[in-house]
Amino acid sequence: MKRDAVMRMLLGGFAVVLMLAGCGGGGGGDTAGGEAPAIPPAGPVTLMTWDPPANFADNEPVDPYRDIDHYEVYVREDANFTNSDLPVMVIPALTSVESTRAPSTHGFKKGRKPNSEFPLENLNPHISKASRQYVSLKAVGVDGQKSAFMPPVAWDRT
Question: How many CB atoms are located within 10 Å of the residue 133 CB?
Fold first, then answer.
């Protein structure tokens, strides 16, 4: 079916980047709008980031607000993912826009935007203690069709 082929190709357009970000530094004073300052993480955070797919395999545009339901996160100690593997976590396709007081939503529909990052440390309670893990995603459409695995990314935990 067309949808089946389309979902297999969804992740072909993903750009996956692992970024290491250290703790944020000080700075004091008041915060804008009276909001409490964010608490920086205790150590480095590893983020997996991606761009939602722009087109289906047949070059039809993908609307990430309408066409993608969620992403499944898979983790293994080797890079040999199979369709019998089970996801360890599910990431919603959309996330809420943080500020409801903003004068505009910057083009985001109904205060939501496509999800495009995930802190890998959130996986720690669900995976083995091995120092190297491989992470992959699958996009799942609103019709339940799943894409193929994205290319695995090595995650060295320290």
Answer: 21
